[in-house]
Each structure stands twice: as structure tokens, then as C-alpha cells.
Amino acid sequence: MKNPNRASERRIARLIAFGVILYAVVMNLNRVSSALSWVLGVFSSILIGLVAALILDVPMHGFERLFARMDRRGRTSEKLRRAVSLLLAVVAVPLVLFVLLRFIVPQFINAVTNVIVIVQTNEDVIVEFFGKVGLEPEFITGKLDEIGDWIRANLTTIFGTAFTTVTSMVSSISDVVLALILAIYILADKVNIRRQAKNTVLAFLPERVSAYLLRCIQMFVTTFRTFLSLQCLEAVILGVLILVSMLLFRVPYAVTIACMTALLALIPYVGAYLSLAIGCVLIVTISPMKALIFVIIFLVAQQVEGNLIYPRVVGKSVGLPAYVTLSAVMVGGALAGIPGMFFVIPVASVAYELLRESVQRRNAERKAERAMEEQQP
Fold this sequence. Notes:
Blueprint: H1 4-27, H2 29-42, H3 44-70, H4 78-121, H5 123-132, H6 137-166, H7 173-188, H8 190-204, H9 207-248, H10 254-264, H11 270-284, H12 288-314, H13 322-375
Helix pairs in contact: 3-4, 3-7, 3-9, 4-6, 4-10, 5-6, 8-9, 9-10, 9-12, 9-13, 10-11, 11-12
């Protein structure tokens, strides 16, 4: 039987040690921040490779399940199915992104060019409007010309700049290539890596801690796989609905906006409305009435997809209430931008489930304690 005094002393010692470490970190925030930046810089390629492996594992897992259903008699080996699934995942993901951007970028550039032409055509009206609020016409005319010239000169490089910003976390193309190669190696040998990692955790950590840690990791991987799959399915359904509706009502830029919606809808909550805003800007350059029709189509399609089709097709979600999901997206976006919005939901789902189980367990223990106290004379 364990000594309660010894257990209490250990808890107090751990609290004291945690307080000392926290105090040291707070008093040396600059050094800690510099050390973390150095560590992230050194291991950036490895971290990117792990994230890429986590993302590519989702379509790879889908292909593996598909091949397993097609080959129920087991005529092909598991290694062969895994290799083919990995190859399809590595080829399919960049191919889909390329096709989507191929439809989005040219039409977007064309729409921005139309906006410039409309502004220059109605320059007198714009100058007159700003003149009524006290701004000099020469100043407005000069600024409009400067903005138009700058957009024309830099429009083709805007998307390249955006891509550079996204990949600014790496120092060179070689880092990206090495990270992708690392992700491929991880996925190719993921069964052995999973077993080795499990054995390492079990060997160096206490049994209770190792079991809890392994369960958290498994919950995160499963939740992330489910979340990404559902998010992709939702994006495809919404994109198809908008494409069909826009073609029926002859709204311009149907293919471009549908592809853009399917791509941006991968961002939880924010992405779909961002696509709506950009689509309005594109269509209003041709017809304000068509832009109004597009807004109605978009909102109706989103409601039909979210309330009728999506629940029936998917049947389950990551298990988070709407307010928790939205709060998690806001926090993740504030911490790490779009990647933070994307990865914070699986983390929040795991934390929410663990908290729910802890609350239920504690309430059950207190209920049992009260029942025992009531039974005592």
C-alpha cells in the first residue's frame, strides 16, 4: 500500500519544480524565444516533412481502404497496396491543386483587369464624388493612375508572392524537397515506425503515462484524418452545388468560382465566406444583378449542403460543438494563421473529448463517494 504522505510530498515537489521552471522561463523570455527560433530553424525541414506525411496519409489511407475492398480475397500483398496508395497520394494532391489553380488564376487576373478598366472609364464620376467630400480632383486622378499602373505591373507576380509567403518557413527549395522525401519515407514505412515509436514510449515512460500519451496520439491522428476527409468532401459538395447553380442561372465565372470555393472551403468557417466575397468582386465587374444572384445562390447552396446533404453523406463529425469549433478556429488563426485554423480543430477535439471523459469520471467518483457516505450509519 502506498504511503499517502509520500505521494503528497511528491506532488508538492513537482509543483515546486514546475514553479521554478516557469519562473526561469518568464525571467528569460528573450533567451527562450531565441532558443526556440534556433531549434525551429534547425528542425524546420523535419517538421515540414512530418506535417506533409500527416496530410498525405489521409488520401493514402483512403486508397488503401479502397484497394482492400476491391481485393477482399487478399490476392495482392499489403506492401504492394501501400506502395500504390502512396504513389497515388503523392501524385493526386499536387495534381488537384494545379488543376484548381489553373482555372482560378487566369480568370482572377482577367477580372482584376476589368475592374481597372471600369475605374478608368468612370474616372470622372469617381473624381466628382471625392470632390464633394473635399479631396482635390488632381490628387484623386493621380492616385487612381498610380494604383492602376502598379496593379498592371505586379498582377502576375501577386500569386508568386503569395506562394513565397506560404513557403517562407523554409530557407530553400532543397529543404522542401528533403521534407517531401522524408514524408514519403515515413509513409512508406509507417507500420514499422508506429511500432518502434510505441515500443520506445512504453520502454522509457511509466505505464500509465505511456498509455495516456499513446491514446492521445491515436486520437489526434484519427480525428485529423476524419476532419480532413470530411472537410475535403464538404468542399467538393459545395463546389459542385455552386457550379451547377451558376451554370443554370448563367452567372459568369462559374468554373473559376466553383474551383475557388472548393479550395478555400478547406479553411474552416472563414474559407467559404472568403470565396463569396471574392466571387462578388469578380461578378460585379460584369453585372451587379448577377452578383446579387450569385450571393443568393451561394447562401442557398451552403444551407442545402450543410443541413441536408453533408449530414447524410458524412454521418459524423469531429465531435465538437459549433461554439467550440469557432472559438478554436479564432485562436488557431491568431496563433498561426491559416495553418493554425486547419490544425487546431483536431487538437481541440482531442482536448474536448479528454476533458469530457475526465468530468464524467470525476462526477461518477463523487457520486459513488456520496452513496457510500449515505450508506454509513
